[in-house]
Amino acid sequence: MRKDWDKYFLDIAFKVKDRSTCPRLRVGAVVVKDNRIKGTGYNGSPSGMPHCDDVGCIIRNNHCIRTIHAEINAIMECSPEERKDATIYVTARPCAECSKVIINSGIKRVVFAKDYNVDYDWFKEAPWIEVVKIDQ
Ligand SMILES: [Zn+2]
Ligand SMILES: [Zn+2]
Question: Which residues have a beta carbon within 5 Å of ligand 2, which is an ion?
Answer without folding.
Answer: 69, 95, 98
